[in-house]
Design a protein that fits this description.
Length: 318
């Protein structure tokens, strides 16, 4: 089964802001939330025919409530000399106990606002106009206003039928899965004598480019990086001195690498020939030592030998 996601809530934080901008402690959050909901109900009930598309609220730290009303008919909201706005402000202040400031924003192209289109179709169905005719006319007006796509949905006892059904109509493209797509969504209910008929409208205006998002802080990043790099002449001199020392050390290493590939067989032969000469010079020294050490022993033996012969001779004479 398909799970439908609200297009406006799906794009919150991407490029669409919240309709209620305020912060509250956990203890006061429930109270302030219900105040906002009740305030929206009262405004929509009193200004039902004013073509209100959206109501934004903002709370400041000094307990002041700012209400911004987006409407296609600002004259009905303001009234003669601003009488209706003043009366609405006084009623909200008495009911909620806060200072209320009301600002009105005019919608210049109501054909591109999904909420206003849905309310227009619902009002025509309540006046017993054919739902097909109302849907076709709204599609033509929206596409002429510059929209790239629109999708309409109507469900209920259409034309007073005993069994409820659903009807859809669309033109252009409506990419609901694209987060950068500026899709406006609105719904309304037509209360007829034979039941309630629901209307849903999706309007695809254009695709939001990355340049239109908030990219101002990115341009300020490279500015502080360029300042500390320029004035540093002492560091340049200190870095240049060890580089000269490195070049001097590397100079004697060069001939070693050049002599290695020049070795030949003749060079190897000369090295082998000269190698035994060194121990030959040392050999007489090593041989001379045992001769000097052995000479007294030989003399002692020669001296003892004739003494033995003399004794033997004396024994023979005796």
């Amino acid at each position: 089964m398909g799970h439908k996601v609200h297009p406006n809530a799906f794009r919150l934080g991407v490029f669409r802001p919240w309709e209620a901008n305020w912060f509250a402690n956990p203890k006061d959050y429930t109270k302030m939330l219900h105040e906002d909901l009740e305030m929206r109900r009262t405004i929509l009930a009193r200004l039902r025919n004013a073509g209100i598309a959206k109501i934004e609220t903002e709370r400041s730290s000094n307990a002041q409530l700012t209400v911004t009303i987006h409407t296609a008919k600002p004259g009905i909201v303001i009234g003669k000399g601003g009488s209706s706005v003043d009366q609405l402000r006084e009623d909200l202040e008495k009911r909620f106990g806060n200072r209320v400031r009301i600002s009105i924003q005019e919608i210049k192209q109501p054909e591109l606002d999904a909420q206003l289109v849905a309310e227009n179709i619902a009002s025509q169905i309540e006046r017993r106009i054919s739902y097909k005719r109302a849907m076709k006319q709204s599609i033509l007006r929206t596409m002429r206003a510059g929209a790239k796509g629109i999708r309409l949905y109507a469900g209920g006892r259409l034309r007073g039928a005993e069994m409820a059904r659903r009807e859809q109509d669309r033109e252009g493209r409506v990419p609901l899965h694209t987060l950068r797509a500026d899709i406006d969504f609105g719904r309304a209910t037509a209360k007829t004598t034979f039941g309630a008929i629901g209307i849903k409208v999706w309007i695809y205006k254009d695709q939001i480019s990355p340049a239109q998002r908030r990219l101002a802080p990115i341009a300020e990043e490279p500015l502080p990086v360029a300042e500390p790099i320029a004035p540093q002449p002492e560091l340049v001199e200190a870095v240049a001195e060890p580089q000269a020392a490195q070049v001097e050390v590397a100079a004697p290493a060069a001939p070693e690498t050049s002599e290695r590939p020049k070795r030949t067989r003749t060079a190897a032969a000369t090295t082998t020939a000269t190698a035994p000469k060194a121990p030959a010079a040392d050999s007489p020294k090593a041989a001379a030592k045992p001769r000097t050490a052995a000479s007294p022993k030989v003399k002692a033996e020669t001296a003892k030998a004739p003494a033995k012969k003399a004794t033997t001779r004396k024994k023979a004479d005796s």
